[in-house]
């Protein structure tokens, strides 16, 4: 199983703000994974703290 997470962060944000937002995304979506079977093809859009779509995660079969 391969877990893939792709997130785009604002280039104009400070390094501290980018790190904070990425940390929040990892905590939230990591905790949310229990709602999925985690089988190939599973995935979801990823949203930032402003509820804007900033990426996605997915399970690949390899």
In words, what does this structure look like?
With 62 residues, this protein is of the alpha+beta class. It has one domain. It is built from 1 helix and 3 strands, in the order βαββ. The chain has a 3-stranded antiparallel sheet, with helices on one face. The radius of gyration is 12 Å and the shape is elongated. The mean pLDDT is 92.
Outline of the structure:
The chain has one helix at 15-32, and strands spanning 2-7, 43-47, 53-60. With 62 residues, it is of the alpha+beta class.
Topology:
Blueprint: E1 2-7, H1 15-32, E2 43-47, E3 53-60
Antiparallel strand pairs: 1-3, 2-3
Overall 3D form: elongated
Strand order of the largest sheet: 1-3-2
Q: What's the N-to-C terminus distance?
A: 6 Å
- Tell me the number of strands: 3
Q: Approximately how much helix is present in the residues?
A: 25-40%
Point out poorly predicted stretches: none
Major sheet size, sense and barrel closure = 3 strands, antiparallel
Q: What percentage of the residues does DSSP assign to strands (E)?
A: 25-35%
Name the helix and strand elements from N-terminus to C-terminus, one letter apiece.
EHEE
Cα Rg? 12 Å
């Amino acid at each position: 199983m391969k877990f893939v997470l792709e997130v785009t962060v604002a280039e104009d944000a400070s390094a501290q703000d980018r790190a904070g937002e990425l940390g929040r995304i990892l905590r939230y979506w990591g905790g949310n994974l229990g709602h999925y079977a985690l089988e190939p093809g599973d995935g979801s859009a990823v949203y930032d703290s402003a509820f804007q779509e900033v990426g996605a995660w997915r399970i690949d079969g390899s």
